[in-house]
Design goal:
- The complex is a heterodimer of chains A (161) and B (549).
- Chain A has 161 residues and is mainly α.
- Chain A is 75% helix and 0% strand.
- Chain B has 2 domains: 176 residues, no CATH class; 311 residues, no CATH class.
- The chains are: A mainly alpha (161), B mainly alpha (549).
- At the A-B interface, helix 3, helix 7 and helix 8 of A face helix 5, helix 12, helix 13, helix 20 and helix 21 of B.
Chain lengths: 161, 549
Amino acid sequence: MLNLGMNKEAVKLIRDNRREVLEQWHSRVLSFFPGKMQSATPIAQALDDGLGNILDSFGTTPETLGNALAGVVRILAVQNFPPSRAMSLFFELKSILQKIAPGTSYKRQIKQKDWDEFQTGMEHLTLEAFDSYMAHREKIYQLKVEESKRQTFMMQRGAKA
Amino acid sequence: MPKFAPKLSELKKEFEEKPSLLKGDYPDKELFDTPVEFRDGNWCYPAKPEIVEDLGFANPRKWAPTDDDWKLPDGWEKTIKDGMKDRLERFRSFKLFLDTCVRCGACADKCHFFLGTGDPKNMPVARAELIRSVYRNDFPLAEKILKGFSGARKLTPEVIKEWHMYFHQCTECRRCSVFCPFGIDTAEITMMGRELLHLIGVNNNWILGPVSNCNRTGNHLGIEPHTFVQNVESLAEDIEDLTGVAIEPTFNRKGAEVLFITPSGDVFADPGVYTMMGYLLLFEHIGLDYTISTYASEGGNFGFFTSNEMAKKLNAKMYHEAKRLGVKWILGGECGHMWRVVHQYMDTMNGPADFLEQPVSPVTGTKFSNAASTKMVHIAEFTADLIKHGKLKLDPKRNNHLKTTFHDSCNIARGMGMLEEPRYILNNVCNTFHEMPENTIREQTFCCGSGSGINTEEYMDIRLRGGFPRANAVRHVKETHDVDSLVTICAIDRATLPALMNYWNPGVSVYGLHELVGNALVMEGENKRTEDLREDPMAGFEDEEDDED
């Protein structure tokens, strides 16, 4: 697993503005879908939960963050848009935070060094998400193989006997 | 207040910013002008030319949806228009459904494919509009004069490509029709759409392959009679190994009281075979005088996904065989679309079955008046009746190792209104049944996402999207009640839900209802049971000697 250490100042910024960050991030991810996924659908609700879990996992353990990440990537990996769009997930989050930070009542301004660290964290997350995306694609191919085997279960059993 | 209900300010902003007919705005591009894009994962392999030829269907050739030229036959436009005209005259429902929709949109967010993909053309109203727009252009008089009015459009190859894509992103589940104020059954529009596509050779191998096999040998996989018998006998041997009870099912036996027909998936596929073992145990338990046919060896009817005529032809073997064997009535296993055909079409397609008797349970004496016409009883009704009369010795603790929920199969719940019987059985054979949320069960059940002949592996991406609403409801009971077993009464569900669960809810397994009945049945003279029909250990029934070791 990659180092998913996240800059503490950025985590605090996210926690302090969780609702606004999540709302905007959710809306941007829904725009990935053709015709924009409506917010009252099971997919949108699952994404809302999943993206919220990712935000809450920043600054916790890599396992917690990895599980939260998988919850969202599992949804994105079967959609009708290219992997590049799915992986732009964290670029969207970065741009949201960059817009939100100056307008908040957050007194301790985030320094450049912290932003750089946060940026590195986002890059690592994107790579981690890519690994998860590929794992889910491979899982889909595995499902196809397993399904074919189940369809000929008795035939294979007969052949082995 | 729902969590995601739009706020007043959002509605105001949307009204001000979005183009709308009310404000005299028109979008630059019509929805239907957006071209479809076929890419791996969103199309099914077309039927092999030899299969199309064998069945006498149109335009056998090698082609793929990703080709620019689909090699449509000469005069295909006329074929489609003539086909539509013919069907508008023959099927009053088709004409009514095309004419009465007011595009209110009540159906829009009820479709699992729309919910799972977000694609506006998957709103049932829009999917039906794919055909309706052509109908408007060519048929009603007003549209002939006012060309382009009300979304009318010309029939082009692009339209055919769109039909092919979206009529295979409808599983004919009919959830949308539950919410339609006019009762429009979009499934019937999809059926007509697919029939029209077959007229010009736009098809799907996963549907026509099984149709061809069924046509030749009687079942989807094309299993020959001797193999069919071997498979069932092999399952009977498994039962004997597991329980010590010897079962000898009979095949093609004339004079049996009951002919038992089930989807062939129960005879050759995992996990359907465990459901078959459950049936065999049940029939042995009550001493039923039944036989299994190697000719009518398939309950499912993929012909139903091609044309009315092919559905009729494949269905006919049920009555043919019942007549030949001289049985009194037919008992049908757990299947989905088989029951839609039996319940809604068989009587007029191939009936009246006046050579059969109104089914009466030989054990309880119950007259199945609901089957007075078709003479065919659903096994869930039959078993529920046995339990109600105390005729089965059941130990529900034998299913304590499973925490269950129940998936209403679309064709059983919406197609024939059977909602209580499977639940009644489940509550009697296990102690751990938890319902999924109310708007995802019974009449409002979500489809598995793979019905109506699209359960092929190359279509997995679309299936995983379409199945998401169902999987999401299972996730809910998994998280709230630790549910690990999804029970169904449909062979397509048993074939496709394992993949859906494995992807969205790892750790949830799929079971047939009668598999759980088979686990719970206490058979006369049985050995001590420690394992279920899958040879998984039962909780609380561990072998003491093994424990001591």
